Amino acid sequence: MNSFEFYNPVKIVFGVGSVEQIGIEVSKYGKKALIVSYDDVSFYGDLFDRIHVKLRENGVAYADYFGATANPKISEAVKGIELGKKEEVDTVIGVGGGSAMDLSKVIAAGILYPHDLKRMIKFSHSDDSWFIPPTQALPIIMVPTLPATASEMNATAVITDDDTLRKSYVWEPACLYPKTSILDPVLTLTLPAYQTACGAIDAVSHVVEPFFFSDEATYGNLELHDHMQFGVIRAIYDNIPKVLENPNDLELRGLMQFSATVGLNGWLTCGTQGWTPMHQMGHVLSSHYKATHGATLACMMLAWMRYFATKKQNERFVKFTRWMFDTNDLLKAADIFEEKIKSFNVQTRISQFGCSEDSLEELTQGVVDVSFSADGTLASIPPITREEVYEIYKLSL
Ligand SMILES: [Fe+2]
Questions:
Q1: Which residues pair with 348 in a beta bridge?
Q2: pTM confidence score
Q3: Is the peptide bond prior to 173 cis by the omega test (within 30 degrees of 0)?
């Protein structure tokens, strides 16, 4: 196993009714909080009234910024930063799925960031001179309501540039880890079936990517990683139909919630690189075609399996299909996987987002612009060329 350093300081408060602790947790870090959530919070019923009460009970004032949309934009962060500065907040609370939580991270760092906000995000992987990572952020408290991104327990935020439609990320352990994340399964009970399924597929993809894109020649013996990763994949994947059939089952909802958190909090990739080529290709589908993040990953996982079935047999992909679908045949496994995802009513083809053969060049260029390294490839094992990105998109039509 390779040498590594692991650091994850996030306090997790998990359990039914745990959202009631929001006031106590926030009061440890500040006196006035900016609450960041979606532009429409009617879906949440009285949740924000209850959060407000708990904050007041613990001596915390607050200002609401309900400005997040799916695939949040730099402009939304700018407005939140302006409000946070005007209200002189000293903490930030993110309430919602990955979009709201990621926006809250960018705002928490952006309030203290002296540069053009766009320079905080890695909008180009080939030109590092543009990127100025944040060095500090206001304390962040998370209340996740959608099991998916694990933003509640990692130091990453994903955001889109309104002007260029480039969707990319900032990863900064020095300041973007939340202080505390409150995982209350009750808050996920009212999730619509489509969001539940897309969130779960996103969470699966977070573990499938390191499973696909690691190898023993690079990272040494991966037996522990493989079993940990496969356990998380199965815990989520096998329970998707169960939670869709029993949406009010708190035990299942809690299992999905914590499994998604574990999927991308760093535990599963110690000593390996977190290559995410499928995410890089999925991001362009979201930013250019407003496709739901988890659905883009469904399309990408299937297309990559089919690409490697025909072009480059890869033992990692075969190990995955043997363990998941009891076959060494990647094409057969992809067919089984696709039928299952379809049964969750999640898109499996990018044509369902409005893409056509005419879109492929634009999509490919989008990946090159944001995610290609200076050496002209997309980081993965093996590295992927421009032509291969085009081919993989084509297979996903
Ligand atoms: Fe994701």
A1: none
A2: 0.95
A3: no
